[in-house]
Structure formats: C-alpha cells, structure tokens
Amino acid sequence: MTVTSLLSGRRNRVAIETLTGCPANGRLLLHSPKRVLLLRRLRSGPDAEERPIMTTRSSARVRAQALFKKEKQAQLGQEAMIQYRADQEATLVKTARLRVLRLARDKDRTAAAGATNKG
Length: 119
Description:
Radius of gyration: 36 Å
Helix content: over 70%
Shape: rod-shaped
C-alpha cells in the first residue's frame, strides 16, 4: 500500500482531517509526527489504539542505543586488532628464537659429523 493510496479517497481525507485536525490536501509534511501517527493508524485498522505507537522520545532512545552499540563494536574491534597484532608479534619473536636455536643445533651437528669423519 503506497502513501498516495493511503492519502487518496474521500473516506481517508475525512479520517486525516479528523485525526490530525488539519485539512487533508495531500501536503502533509513527509516525516511530520502527525503524518507518521496517521499512517500508522490507517495501516493498522480499527485496533490502532491497542498497539503502542513509538514516540519521539523512544525513537531518540533507539537511535542512541544504536549509536552506543556502534561505538562499542568499534571499540571491541580496536581491542581485537591490538590483541591480533600482539599475538602476531609474539609469534614472530618465538619463530626467530626457534630459528636461532635450530641453526645452532644444525651447526653443532655438522661440526660433530665433520669431527667423526676426520677421526
């Protein structure tokens, strides 16, 4: 159902005028609170009063929570990157240490093998 179909028709114009208190000439602001409320009531039918309608305060709260969640995710991402780089650095240090030990061991083996072949 499109917005124009919601705003067209004599019955809907009367409903708009009744609900909003302003003439229904199709020039309601696109995101005005009255229009949002009106569209929700028109879409929901006769049981509109039973359904909770989000207020400006609660939508601001939802936006704030979403912003907080994004900031927290960004912070966790930075912490994860720091941990990843620390692990990578530790792996490089460990690999270098093991390489030095392996080269020293191989040098000792070749020296021992050379001494047994001469002797």
